[in-house]
Amino acid sequence: MQYSLHDKKWIRHENLIWILLAQGLAVFPILLQLPEWLWAVWLIAILWRVQIYRGQLSFPSTLIKAMVAGVVVTGLLLSFSFRIDINTLIGMFFCAYVLKLVEFRTKRDGLLLVFLGFFAVGTQFLFSQTMVAALYGFISCIVLVTAWKVLYLDRPEKIVTKLKGGFVILLHATPLMILFFIVMPRIEPLWSLPALGSSAKTGFSDTMSPGDVGKLVKSSGTAFRVEFDGDVPAANAMYWRGLVLDYFDGRSWRVYPRGPNSQPLLRPLSSDVASSDALSKNNYRYTVTLEPHDQHWLFSLAEPVHVNFLGGETNLDERVFITSKKPIFKQVQYTVKSVVGESHGPKNSLNERALTENLLIPDTLNPKTRQRVAKWLAQGLTAQQIIQQALSQYKQSFYYTLEPPLLGRHSIDDFLFTTQQGFCEHFASSFVFMMRAAGIPSRVVAGYQGGKKNPVQNYFIIEQSDAHAWTEVWLKDVGWLRIDPTAAVAPERVNEGISQALSETDLQLVGNGAFNELPWLRSLRQRIDAAGYVWNRWVLSYNGSTQKSVLEKLFGGTEPWRIAVVIVVAGLLVGLSLFFYFYLDNRKRPLTIEVRLVKRFLKKAEGLGIKRRSEETIACFSKRIAAEKPELAKSALALSVLFESVAYRDEVGDIEKLRKLVVAFPRCA
Amino acid sequence: MDLVVKRIIDQVGQVLLGKEHQVKLSLACLLARGHLLIEDLPGMGKTTLAHCLAATLGLDYDRVQFTSDLLPADILGVSVFDRNSSAFQFHAGPVFTQVLLADEINRSTPKTQSALLEAMEENQVTIEGETRQLPVPFFVIATQNPSTQSGTFPLPESQLDRFLMRISLGYPDESSEMALYKGVDPRAIIKTIKPMVSLPVLSRLQDAVNDVRATDQLLSYLQRLVHATRAEDKFTHGLSPRGALAWLRGAKAWALIHQRDYVVPDDIQAVMPAVVGHRIRSVEYGSADHGAMFDYLLKTVDVLGETA
């Protein structure tokens, strides 16, 4: 086979470098999710191709290619233990793509590599759809387009110029991309992406033992973000209910286990959260963007009355917390309307089951506590007085800390009478125990309390370090009343957030040291968080039903013909106006690049107070500038020389120099 | 080559003090293979310029004083019967030279003036049915008195068009005039002048004019200027295509003597009065006030390619 550098069909050294670079960028995110040995496949493919380029190796024969393919496929099947799922298929695609390098000899092969590169960029979104991933994908596309362009380039260009060219081409495609994003039908199995690459999630589990909330507070990460539509409740009223723990086994609290015969306590919630109706006082409407926590519950303010969750079906547990039918494996959004009142639930009587459940405590444990409560009862105190009594004892000698001493078998006794140091779960747990011992129905509520407002975008961010546990007691004629024992020992926790309630040493532990951040770093983090939030709110949450409402707004309906007509008509209008613009523009004398550049220079000079007369040549004008502003003499004269060289000598190579000088020319004094 | 041009200009400048621009224009005119018309009052140095230029370029030089009774044969030559050979013998007129100074050309009758026509255009003359080649190069420097003076026959437009450039010398400035008084008699200096350039070099210079580059950007400027002269409400007649070509050639020669191998708009502007002045006539100013006419033209046409 004849191989000549002058033959247009063959690739050049430069093509190889660009293709390698573009391919590398495109496959890198995929490679991170695949078995490690595939790095070796990639490296071998690159080395092989480079050696072919250097003349050390030849292009492989069909037999060798078949053998390599066989080895790689076997390896993949072994790695994925003969499961053929999407990961295996991505692995095969990856191998096929990188091994294509050793067949890469003509421009046509180069084209194939570029096109597959776009596919690879799309594949990476199976693993991550964050804004960072999107930005990375965009950059990969720029390099791919540049590599594509370089395949056909036959004059030298600077690297920056090439990349800029790629960027501009991609920019041209952006309007079409946005259009497709908006109107492409989101057919379910195609658009609901499999959850890949999930890692261990932090968050509440359905049990709570002493130390659990403390552990959560120490971990970093965001639990969810909330954007209010209209009024915002006070910070100390923001109790984000996660789940209600009503069963105590002596050590841990959990959601009451249901026997097989028991009726589920769930009722479906109305999903009608019309955004137009006005909100009365104490009614709040808000959208929660929940990070995945692999559990069923959704966070809300008490008491939720409507919820609109596009990701699936929701139910309201009778104990007043929202659950999703499917676990939350990926970020979701839902809108809730809550009525925030003093109390909620039935006021007159509790049903029998609720009564039993909310009074149940292990008989044999914590004798000292029982004795104390028995004493209160003997004194004939009312329920209200017992609550006050219990809270007031916390105020005396208890200490709020993130690092409490360990507790023994009688954990409540140990806490109340010996250690007297604890975190919110200790207070909540002991308080509910005392109430139940006193015959007052009560339960523990786990969730988050408070939230920081992001100053960039108008939303609240609730971190894991805002995790909290509090209690509810049921009183006749009142209903379920929220009581936060932590507020008795450390009121700052509720009013001003965790950072004010803990000692300096404890604070080091919160949120993985998040409170020790430098101010500029925190502000940067807030900005990044805000950008990510906007991305999630408007791009990732754009699904079938939001699309429907957007299309209805834009086109007055979702029928395909309607959308097609609007797009065709709009396209024709844009096309025609562009045609006429260029047609009319061409009838005028078109301006060349150097004239446009020099006009920019003239505009800048005008800003400095020197205006060119129409009969003045650029040389004369520059001399005038030099005379009037000696400090600009050098650049003005150099500029005029370059302009003359381009315009009157056809030295096209000087255009870039001219552009630089024009850009560098001072705008205004 | 650059040095040659500079030496020529310097040497002529030593004689014709303070007239560097006019010296350059006349040299550009010669390099562009065009003829030069100098219009000025008597005694302004017209003859000196012509003579000095011819001597510096090492060319044959002849001079004809045009008067109202000058006949064509006085310029072209005449055949005289030679008794010894019993044949007519052609006696070449003063036109058979390399540089011809036609002094006060507008004092002669149109018939005589037109005798020069063929010579200037075709580089040949036809006398008694026989065509004779003129020497190469052939360069006519004509001088004329302002047409307002008595006893003049104004040159017709067709004749004026034969001249690539028309310049006027004007009075010298103060310092040049002082230097003139103090210095040696210019006529004495001309006698000592040595040629600065050989004939082949001169002809190479003339060829180089054709190689000077004019880009589209520049030609567009020229075209827009030419187009502006054809505005009927401003000019009685505009510039002909031949005039436009002459303008371009003049600008190229001007670029060459400024050591450039490409034309810039400044060249076009610099040669404009000399090349265009005798070819167009404005409605408003006639041919009298050229300054205002040129100002108008330049202001109308933007150098950068936008019509104002």
Descriptive terms for the model:
heterodimer, A: 669 residues, alpha+beta, 3 domains, six-stranded antiparallel β-sheet, five-stranded antiparallel β-sheet, 25 helices, 50% helix, 14% strand, elongated, disordered N terminus, B: 308 residues, alpha/beta, Rossmann fold, Helicase, Ruva Protein, domain 3, 2 domains, five-stranded parallel β-sheet, two-stranded antiparallel sheet, 13 helices, globular
Concise summary:
The complex is a heterodimer of chains A (669) and B (308). By secondary structure, chain A is of the alpha+beta class.
What's the structural blueprint in terms of helices and strands?
The complex is a heterodimer of chains A (669) and B (308).
Chain A: H1 13-32, H2 37-53, H3 62-79, H4 86-99, H5 107-123, H6 131-151, H7 159-183, H8 188-191, E1 207-208, H9 212-218, E2 222-229, E3 239-245, E4 247-248, E5 253-254, E6 266-268, E7 283-290, E8 297-298, E9 304-309, E10 314-317, E11 321-324, E12 332-339, E13 343-344, H10 352-357, H11 367-378, H12 383-397, E14 399-400, H13 411-419, E15 421-422, H14 424-437, E16 442-449, E17 452-454, E18 459-463, E19 467-475, E20 479-483, H15 485-489, H16 491-496, H17 498-501, H18 504-507, H19 519-540, H20 544-555, H21 560-587, H22 593-607, H23 618-628, H24 633-649, H25 655-664
Parallel strand pairs in A: 14-15
Antiparallel strand pairs in A: 1-5, 2-7, 2-18, 3-16, 4-5, 6-10, 7-12, 8-11, 9-12, 10-11, 13-20, 16-19, 17-18, 19-20
Chain B: H1 2-15, H2 20-31, E1 35-39, H3 46-56, E2 61-65, H4 72-76, E3 77-82, E4 87-92, E5 99-103, H5 110-122, E6 124-127, E7 130-133, E8 139-144, H6 157-161, E9 163-167, H7 174-182, H8 186-192, H9 199-211, H10 216-229, E10 235-237, H11 241-257, H12 265-276, E11 281-282, H13 290-300
Parallel strand pairs in B: 1-8, 1-9, 2-5, 5-8
Antiparallel strand pairs in B: 3-4, 6-7, 10-11
Helix pairs in contact in B: 1-2, 1-3, 2-11, 3-8, 9-11, 11-12
